[in-house]
Amino acid sequence: MRLLLLPLVCIGMLANMSAQTAGAPVAYLPPIGGSSGGPYKAQCGPTENLMGFELRSGVYLDAIRPVCVVTYGPTSIGNQVAASNWSGGTGGQAQRVLCPASSPIVIGLDATSSSYDNFVITNIHLYCGQAVPSQAMPAYPSATFDTPEHVIPAGVNSKLANNEDRTAYGHQGCPAGQVAVGVHGRAGTWVDAVGLICGAPRKDASGMALGRVQQTTPAPDISICERAQAARARNSPSAPALEAQCNASRQPAVPSGKVGVALGRVGAPAGTSGSVPVCDQAQSARARNSPVAAELEARCRAIGGGQGNPVELTPDQLAARGAILANDPLVAELRKRQPSANLRGFDIGMGAAEGQKEWGAGKEKVLASLNPAEQQGFKVAVSFTLDLNRNAQFAAIGAAIAQADPVVASARTRDPEVRAWLGFDIASGIYGDPAKGAKNNTFGLQSLAIRGQLSLPAQRGFDASKQLHLSRHY
């Protein structure tokens, strides 16, 4: 009889443990965004923590629902579970922003809300950690989602001068000892506001994790075609939709069940998008022994890339090259402001991103080889360099305008983040005085796309510069 009772007692203990977890106190962080729409909230299950979000978006963030993950240990995770109901409207295209497998649990977020009439969420950046009660907030987000900037109606420049073009930024992190276990906010036609629900890390203590292989989730900064490949490999129900998005992104179609090479990326550590450099593609293909490696290496060599095979510099070689690049005054200022523990990573990032305009597999591989502090420095350097290389002409025009105009020069450095200074220069090159070489907003909607590709600090500088120059009525 005692032998029969023992399993029942264990089952009862496990059930009680889950019940205690589910009923544990949670903290609702104040939502970031506007006050329109109605309230929504969604919590993860008793053995799940928040891994990220499934989103629908166009110009705005149309709808949101949490993606939770069954958790067995700090980084030991099982199935991803998306909430059954969406919060928000019915428009937009579906996509996900998820924490990486090495730090799979959300512990904080940045959100941006922009609109001419009402605040609507346009950007969500996730800070990720592990299912542990004590951890430091990362210096930079691990996963990012950005919509294009809200298109402002024509003929409202006079109102912009009166600061009616509003953009709101917010940052929040779970209290000490807690991680994200859900999301809440306000939504109607779009998602108006978003905030985290935090609680003690939830774990599945039933023993079901024995023998389980940890699930690997494609990082949000990989290309849509790479996401499609990964989804097809694990027979995910999202594979057909991702493959359709891949085919629609002007990249070669990904046949079901076959490995392809992504020729474009959607997102990067700092919210970038575009094409992966062919030499980075070649390195990635060679690393996985892909049959297309030889062809990509030939293309790399044809444009002056590596000799024989793509050259793969060591981190020390990249750091040496990065230190030389720090002779640029703006780079030198950015480097000076990095914590000493991050400096080697910063120099490596400068070397790895030299001449590059997009994130790629080569930089991802270098990043993975660094310690956490060096990774932060690497991300800062790469995001700065990619922003600069994509917009070098506008940045040069804007820097010259600031040098000749004390008012612009003073406003340019008001934000303590040097990457914001770069964003300020880029916007000055677009919206500044046309007599000094600026486009004076004749660049049209393309300027919105430029802004959308910048890192979040650079976007802050871009917005401040735009507001200043539009107020001066050149």
Q: How would you explain this protein's 3D organization?
A:
The protein has 474 residues and is an alpha+beta fold. The protein contains 16 helices and 16 strands. Strands 1, 2, 3, 13 and 14 form a 5-stranded antiparallel beta sheet that branches. Helix 5 packs antiparallel against helix 6 (293-302), helix 9 (343-352) packs antiparallel against helix 10 (361-368) and helix 12 packs across helix 13 (406-412). The longest helix has 21 residues, at 2-22. The N and C termini lie far apart (90 Å). Residues 1-22, 150-165, 208-222, 249-275 and 306-311 have low confidence and may be disordered.
Mean pLDDT: 75
**Major β-sheet profile:** 5 strands, antiparallel
Note the overall shape.
globular
Q: Give start-end ranges of low-pLDDT stretches.
A: 1-22, 150-165, 208-222, 249-275, 306-311
| Estimated radius of gyration | 23 Å
Please count the beta strands (DSSP E, at least 2 residues each). 16
Strand content: 15-25%
User: How far is the N terminus from the C terminus?
Assistant: 90 Å
Structural class by SSE content? alpha+beta
What helical percentage do the residues reach?
Answer: 25-40%
> Number of helical runs?
16
What is this structure, in a nutshell?
The chain is of the alpha+beta class. It has helices at residues 2-22, 157-161, 224-233, 239-248, 278-287, 293-302, 315-325, 329-336, 343-352, 361-368, 372-390, 392-404, 406-412, 418-431, 446-453, 456-471; strands at 26-28, 32-33, 38-43, 48-57, 61-71, 77-82, 87-88, 93-98, 105-115, 120-129, 143-146, 166-173, 179-187, 191-199, 265-266, 273-274. α14 packs across α16.
